[in-house]
Design goal:
Layout: H1 2-7, H2 12-21, E1 24-28, E2 61-66, H3 88-97, E3 102-108, H4 131-142, E4 146-151, H5 157-161, E5 166-168, E6 174-178, H6 184-196, E7 202-206, H7 221-231, H8 243-270, E8 275-279, E9 303-307, H9 317-328, E10 334-339, H10 353-365, E11 369-375, H11 384-399, E12 412-416, H12 418-425, H13 430-445, E13 450-454, H14 460-464, E14 468-472, H15 479-490, E15 494-498, H16 517-520
Parallel strand pairs: 2-3, 2-11, 3-4, 4-7, 7-8, 8-9, 9-10, 10-11, 12-13, 12-14, 14-15
Antiparallel strand pairs: 1-15, 5-6
Helix pairs in contact: 3-4, 6-8, 10-11, 12-13
Amino acid sequence: MNVLKKRFNINASVLIRTAGLFFGLLAMLNNSCMESATTKSDFRLRPETGRAKVWYERCLVGLEVGPTGAQFGHSDAKDTRYCAKFNGREIVRYCVDANCDYLVIWARDGDYAYYNSKLLPKAPGLGKRDPLRETVEEAQKHKLPVIAYCVVQQGGHFLVAHPEFEMRDSNGNRIGRFCYNSDYLEVMKKIVAEQLAYGIDGFHIDMLDQGFGPPYGCWCEHCRKKFKAEFGRPMPKSVTWDEDWDRMLEFRYAGSARFEQALCEYIKSLNPRATVDFNYHGNPPFSWEVGQRPVQHAGNGDFVTGETGVWGFSALTVGLNAEFYRAATPGLPFQVAMQRGVRMYHDQTTRPLNDIRWELLTLLAHGTFVTVVDKTGFDGWLDPVAYERIGTAFEEVRAKRSHFGHKPVSEVGIYFSSRTRDWIGRDEPARYFRSFQGAHKALAYEHIPWSVVLDENATIETLKKLPIVLLPNAGIVSAKELALLHRYVEEGGNLIITGLSGCYDRMGQLQKKSSLESLVGARFIRKLDSLDN
């Protein structure tokens, strides 16, 4: 131990404990001193510009309120029970009583508008009422920021009425999603312009995906022409996992990014102070099929919004998701949405208070601001018990505000490889995610401070902030990444390398030698039948 302390200018016990958790290769050189103290730094405060702060720079907690009944599309357009009690004024009053800093109000989903739209059908139970107008007018009395929730990608009545915007699979079949290379963008511009005219403070734009599994798209005529113009060759005829499919993945990623950027730019052209955030699907368990990379699709709005919760992730990944969003948009605020229902968003069983407190305070401790999602009953009824519990939790947040927004301390950076996700995970991304999430689990259980490092935006400055960088089964390591890791070690960093890191080429094929051999001084002999030995 004395020898280690002398050789490594870090907490030797952390290095030993971390290395002991992972069966792999450990490359260690002298490491410079790292800052270990927690320093106060409010992540919501930008450099002084002489202007008033926008809402997300001063807010910590809010509610998103929307109905249950049309979330999957194709609901009964004649059922006037739906949203009969969905009342914007009442929602605002409940939120104010629950100590909300802001409100995200449901304005559009795949089936309906929840305001008087000239473009979209309105929820049948609303009659002549306009919940968006009710919300904005009541919120102004309380100086409560109002954000419009607006869906982009969801099959429903509008898509059925406009097949010209629909994605096609490789056989030309309609697959129930909007194509981002069609003229649907122009429709979305008109929709957000309608909502912006109400005087809202910004948009939360959801469902910017290309589907969450097969059938995959898109092979419509818009996409075929655009692909041919861009690459000088026709699209691959299916999911081929070759050079043509590599081009197809780039084409899909670029299409999603262009759509987000164009929509954001249009909103800003109408109102530069209106905020825009897109719901994000670049972190596990999502993969290439969604059409998002971790970094490329996180920074196209004012801040990134991601989700958490046992329903779709796990209890352990509450903090992991938050740190993933931080890593994807370094230096920017980031928002996380959690649900009030026990099982999932549209579950009407309200979580116990301490369960809400646990997730809420965990997220805030990781530096996020948090939106609790309340899905009302079918008729739009608000559950007073839910708002009482949320209000109690939000009151505690206000009392403990000084504890949030500090600079995090990290001893180990967990490296995430998006190329490995795509080309080794392929149609079963959990094959890679298990290693990344398992590394996090081991560190969390041992109470070793950790953070997330992403291959897309990792720099030497990023790595040098960390005493240790862990590559958990990062099968594909590019020449650029290898040079970065070499420099990190040469300048005093410590690597822990596990699994088959560096053992695959860029197309996900096993190599005869690891690209990391020159770095770690060991040879790759063969792949074992199991990663867990």
